[in-house]
Design brief:
mainly alpha
Length: 231
Amino acid sequence: MQDSSLTAPSPLAGDPTRRSRGATPRAWAWTGVVAGVLGLVSIQSSMALGVNWEETAGDADAIVADLAGRTGTQILFHTATIACALLVLVFAAGLKRRLDAQAPAGSLLPTVAGWGLVLVSVAGLLGSGLDTQFLFGLGDTALIVPESGAFYSDWVATIPWLWVGAGVAGVALGVAALRHAAAPRWIGAVGFVLGGLALLTGVSPLQYMAGFVGPIWLLVTALGFALGDRR
């Protein structure tokens, strides 16, 4: 007589560790939507910190005095930039997994797309890395070396704008979608257009210009996967 305790479990039995075959989790895509919005906030707040750059250019004391009156904008910039940097990593992982599911076996495209977004995250982390020092230090400008304050102004106006990695991700996604049908074709077209533009500007000497395009590509692409990806 067979011991019932040794009987294999029925395949119909509920297994909480298994996901139903028809489920298509989109949390990673919605995370990318939030990251895209925060990326736009980061760029806009960075611009607001240097809104008077023409009037203060070449005068370190004037630059520090101007920054000292923008504490709220500094806090917004820091929060948006570092939050975007962290959330982009989640979207990068989700995008790689999504492309791995349909890209040819052994294809480098999913990995290249994911690592491109890791570069965006690193740029955001570094771009906000001096905020603590100057956010509180500018409360008493007598404690700030003017030249250091001027350097900080250039730092936040350049490093967080280095979205060239988004261009790499966009072009890789475009190839995966249009050549290998690993994603919706229109998302691939967006990757070629906006991603390609971010890549070209990022490679050029005006590399910070990629910051105008990269967050838009991320937002549109993430919305596409969240709302328009039927897989």
